[in-house]
């Protein structure tokens, strides 16, 4: 009996338990394509591991992977203890994310390549109509300008750089945008947004919005900036009705009877709204959620915005600012010809061509490198 107990005791001493499954320390989501991990397991003498494979090979307790592709991967590791006893395998999922694109290099000053006098009606002097232009938008084959005093929208042919048509709006247009096969015009005194057929060159719908300062087209919707409350209206082009109202921010100020939210612009990067009183631009996503509020120079008072790809162009009375839409950072400032008073009001970007209007001089400028 004593011999049997002694034998069992000796046998028990020879049985070695495997170490516990290792703990993996390291980022599960990273942009580093060769991430490093640390393995810990009490009693472990070595480790075996592999990425995206079930065949584990010996590796160090501090392990750096090979270069991994963007996407999800599986890291498997087990501990090796005394008598070569192996632990259960620990499996973790790690994700390699694409690094954010670098900010664009600073863009040097641009220059006025062409000055276009804008007539209220083709062939007639603009001064005879006393008209001024403070907003414009560009499409693939036309530039559209809104005349505040003249109560019409002018169409410029970019091929000839001349005015080819003028469409009455029966009210003071404050802003113009292009989208869904139409030209959209906000009326400051008409309490509505107009939809214009660019082929027939006539108003085909009137949307009751109240007084609006700016209008933009983005993500399949029309976005109109209210002149009386700090809000942006989303209009559905399929119904020509307001589908949603977005409260831009709660600390808006009233300027001359109107809230300080002014022009809007839209593109693939979302919707952009100029905030004159606070010298900043608000960037909204496709759902109207605030992405960023971008401060500009004190006293800049942004007025008009145009978006082309990942660039937002912002103007005040005599400057053009380029804002990177990815990093939401201003990257360059270009001085522009100033008028006698209010000066520059409208901007529209279309590829390498940037159009700017001069409110005082009744001119449109083609800006480029």
How would you sum up this structure, described in words?
With 369 residues, the chain is mostly beta strands. It folds into 2 domains: 21-96, Sandwich (Immunoglobulin-like), CATH 2.60.40; 111-368, Methylamine Dehydrogenase, Chain H (7 Propeller). Helix content is 4%, strand content 52%. It has one helix spanning 2-14; strands at 23-25, 29-30, 36-40, 46-51, 57-59, 62-64, 71-80, 90-96, 111-117, 133-138, 143-147, 152-157, 162-168, 173-179, 182-187, 192-197, 202-208, 212-218, 221-226, 231-236, 241-247, 254-255, 258-259, 261-267, 270-275, 280-284, 290-295, 304-308, 311-315, 319-324, 329-335, 344-350, 353-358, 363-368. It has a 5-stranded mixed sheet, with no helix packed on it. A 4-stranded antiparallel sheet has the order 9-34-33-32, with no helix packed on it. It has a 4-stranded antiparallel sheet with strand order 10-11-12-13, with no helix packed on it. A hairpin with a 4-residue loop joins β20 and β21 (241-247).
């Amino acid at each position: 009996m004593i011999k049997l107990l002694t034998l069992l005791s000796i046998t028990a001493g020879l049985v070695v338990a495997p170490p516990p499954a290792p703990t993996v320390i390291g980022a599960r989501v990273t942009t580093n394509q060769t991430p490093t991990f640390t393995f810990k397991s009490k009693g472990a003498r070595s480790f075996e591991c592999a990425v995206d494979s079930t065949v584990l090979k010996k590796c160090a307790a501090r392990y750096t992977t090979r270069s991994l592709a963007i996407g999800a991967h599986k890291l498997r590791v087990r501990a090796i203890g005394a008598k070569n006893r192996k632990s259960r395998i620990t499996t973790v999922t790690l994700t390699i994310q694409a690094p954010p694109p670098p900010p664009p290099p600073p863009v040097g000053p641009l220059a006025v390549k062409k000055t276009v006098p804008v007539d209220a009606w083709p062939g007639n002097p603009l001064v005879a109509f006393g008209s001024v232009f403070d907003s414009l938008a560009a499409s693939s084959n036309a530039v559209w300008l809104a005349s505040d005093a003249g109560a019409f929208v002018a169409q410029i042919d970019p091929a000839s750089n001349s005015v080819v048509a003028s469409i009455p709006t029966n009210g003071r247009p404050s802003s113009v945008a292009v989208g869904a096969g139409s030209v959209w015009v906000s009326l400051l005194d008409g309490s509505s947004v107009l939809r214009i057929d660019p082929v027939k060159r006539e108003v085909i719908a009137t949307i009751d919005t109240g007084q609006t300062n700016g209008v933009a087209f983005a993500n399949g919707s029309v976005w109109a900036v209210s002149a009386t409350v700090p809000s942006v209206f989303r209009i559905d082009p399929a119904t020509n009705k307001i589908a949603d109202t977005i409260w831009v921010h709660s600390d808006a100020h009233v300027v001359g009877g109107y809230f300080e939210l002014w022009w809007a612009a839209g593109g693939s990067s979302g919707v952009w709204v100029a905030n004159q009183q606070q010298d900043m631009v608000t960037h909204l996503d496709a759902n109207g959620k605030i992405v960023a509020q971008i401060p500009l120079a004190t006293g800049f008072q942004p007025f008009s915005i145009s978006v082309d790809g990942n660039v937002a162009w912002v103007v005040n009375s005599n400057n053009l600012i380029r804002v990177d839409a990815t990093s939401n950072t201003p990257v360059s400032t270009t001085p522009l010809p100033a008028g006698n008073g209010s000066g520059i009001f409208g901007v529209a970007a279309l590829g390498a061509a940037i159009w700017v209007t001069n409110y005082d001089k009744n001119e449109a400028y083609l800006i480029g490198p």
